[in-house]
Amino acid sequence: MSQKKTKPKYNLWQNIGFMLRLAWKHHKSVIFLMEGETILTVLGSLLTLLLAPTILGQIEQNAPIESLVRAIVFFSLSLLLVYGAKAYIEQNKLFGRIYLREQIMRLINQKAMQTSYENVEKKDFRDASTEACRALDGNTDAGEITWTNLHELQVAILGLIIYLFFLSRIDYLLVLIVIVTAVGNFFISKHFSDQYYAYRDEGRTSYRQLDLYNRQARDPSIAKDIRLFGMKSYLGDIYEAARKTYQDYAKKRERTILWADLVEVAATVLRNGAAYVYLIIQTLRQGLSASEFLLMFTAISGLSTFVVNIFAYLMWLRRNSADLSKTREFLDYPEPFLLDEGLSPVSSDGEYQVELRDISYQYPESEVKVLDHVSLTLHPGEKLAVVGLNGAGKTTLVKLMAGFLDPTEGQVLLNGQDVRTLNRSEYYELFSAVFQQISTISVTLAENVAQQTEELIDEARMWWALQKSGLEEKVQALPHKEKTILGKEVFDEGISLSGGELQRLMLARALYKDGAILILDEPTAALDPIAEKQMYEQYAEFSKGRSSVFISHRLASTRFCDRIVLIKDGKLIEEGTHASLMEKDGEYAKLFDIQARYYQEGVEF
After folding, report:
1. How far apart are CA 181 and CA 170, in angstroms?
2. DSSP string covering 132-179, please?
3. Per-residue burial over 107-124, b = 16 or more CB atoms within 10 Å of its CB, e = otherwise
4. What are phi and psi of 87, to 5 degrees?
5. From CA 191, how far away is CA 296, in angstroms rounded?
6. What is the residue-averaged pLDDT of the chain?
7. Which strand (E) or helix (H) includes residue 564?
């Protein structure tokens, strides 16, 4: 089913202005080199146009040999200088254009990394991010090829003006025929070009599939599965299906290109035929010299090319403008949080209380509330456990508490201040966290702990965090110690840590940050309950003197907490200490008993 195309937010001229402002700010040479190349290209075309007719005219007039030699030397040196300078520009223009494309990509990456977390969870934001990068994939995409298109358009316009001057002696009917055939050729070719352009998404999709299957076949992370489950034949079949789809696309593409070329040949024959007939008649009637005949015929061919190029490069600029508009629309994506504005969090004694006041939350793509009218307060210095089965809403609750999401209903308050009014970046500084997903970067262990470049790392604090997390001995035993690269994705000398070691690394990161509030969102879900309990008890030791939130679906692992709340189906149904909840013999006690029976000897199910 075809989808209605939305009009780009920014038009062609606005996007050209954006590119020019970007170049003027970051790399002015891009503009100067483009204009210099334009002038040199037109000048080279003009010299080429005049070269043969001038030499031929000298011969027709029986000019002295010295005059003929001077003309040849003049044109030769002029062309040498022009094309030499143009070659220099062509060799150097690419660096600035790539730099500007990288500047746009930097803006996209900054937007993706700094945007409100709420945006990250929206499908349309992720789609917009993908579309934004489309203009920057390579040298032939909008973020860079726009400069080439602008250059060629300027060449075509200047060339058209100059060539019309040389053709002022010709009957305007012939000029009209040339222009009409050129325009007709352009629009017919555009029809086939539009077909080719329409096939692009089909080709891109099948190519991505081929690339994906190629990478999966060589991916070490699934190598064991491929062998153990006999996936070789299956992967081979789906690869062959994707290859056939891409081959079908390539056949349609090549047929389109063939028809476009045939139309261009026909238009060229028609235009040149009309020019030949007209100029031959003029020669017979008015006695045009051979040099004039050659000049006029060459100018007619050049005029047609310039007319076609004006339309063609305007078309390509419009298409590339649509891609640039997608990029700029992503950069303009609205921010629901006050990331760099708003009030600073207030605390007179360095203690913070986080209150969830009658909050509800419903994800944009969902029709069901994940949390439904929940009220909960994290008191200063309190160890709070949030427990419940998978899917109960525990992670969403901690996202709201940490300011990653704003509630659909209700308020999140920090010391009585509505978090919506606070500077969100400063608010995040209050939290240290260890989440379920382990995030590492292919840099040194020290940088993974501190999340800063080496020159900014407090080494004493970093080693303290490693020692408290139980990783110091491991790191000291490595050849490069804390400067050892983590991960083998980039550097061959990189190392891989075990699952338990990665958990300790995440703890070291949280300890290094030393936030006022510690959040642990099921970071040990992959461990058995006994190992998880031991890890949580270790975490508890480091949470002394600060507020802490422990999220788990295993009830026994958080018995050391001051207070436990049970979440079920998005509602807070019970709260209290472990002892009081067991004494109540409610939902918590039932779940605790069920989980505990798995680890009691002699129990049959």
Report:
1. 17
2. HHHTTSSTTSHHHHHHHHHHHHHHHHHHHHHHHHHTTTS-HHHHHHHH
3. bbeebbeebbbbbeebee
4. -65, -40
5. 31
6. 83
7. strand 563-568
Burial bucket for residue 203 (CB in 10 Å: 0-12, 13-18, 19+): middle
Q: Beginning with the edge strand found earlier in the chain, give each strand of the sheet holding 354-361 in spatial order.
A: 371-378, 354-361, 409-414, 417-418
Whether 405 contacts 118, CB under 8 Å: yes
DSSP bridge pairs for 518:
432, 548
* CATH architecture of the region 12-331: Up-down Bundle (1.20)
Long-range contacts of 492-498 (CB under 8 A, 24+ apart): 494/442
Question: Do residues 353 and 379 make contact, with C-beta atoms less than 8 angstroms apart?
Answer: yes
Overall CATH class of domain 350-430+517-599: alpha beta
Q: What is the pLDDT of residues 524-577, one digit of tens each?
A: 665 666 666 666 667 677 777 788 898 887 777 777 888 999 998 889 999 999
- pTM value is 0.74
Residue 589, exposed/middle/buried by CB under 10 A (0-12, 13-18, 19+)? middle
Distance CA 324, CA 317 (A): 10
Q: Do 350 and 516 touch, CB atoms closer than 8 A?
A: yes
The β-bridge partners of 520 are 434, 550
Measuring CA to CA, which residue among 587, 560, 555, 553 is closest to residue 394? 553
Q: Which runs of E-coded beta strand occur in 327-367?
A: 354-361
Using N-to-C axis directions, what is the helix angle for 142-166 and 29-60, rounded to 10°? 30
So where are the chain's domains? 12-331, 350-430+517-599, 438-514
Domain 438-514 is of which CATH architecture? 3-Layer(aba) Sandwich (3.40)
Q: Do domains 350-430+517-599 and 438-514 have the same CATH topology?
A: yes
What is the longest distance spanned by two Cα atoms in the chain?
A: 120
Mean pLDDT across 573-594 = 89
Element housing 98 (H / E):
helix 65-114
Reply yes or no on whether the pLDDT at 47 is more than 50: yes
Alpha carbon distance 312, 319 (integer Å): 11
- Condensed to tens digits (0 to 9), the pLDDT of residues 198-254 reads 656 566 677 777 777 777 777 777 777 778 777 778 777 877 887 887 777 777 777
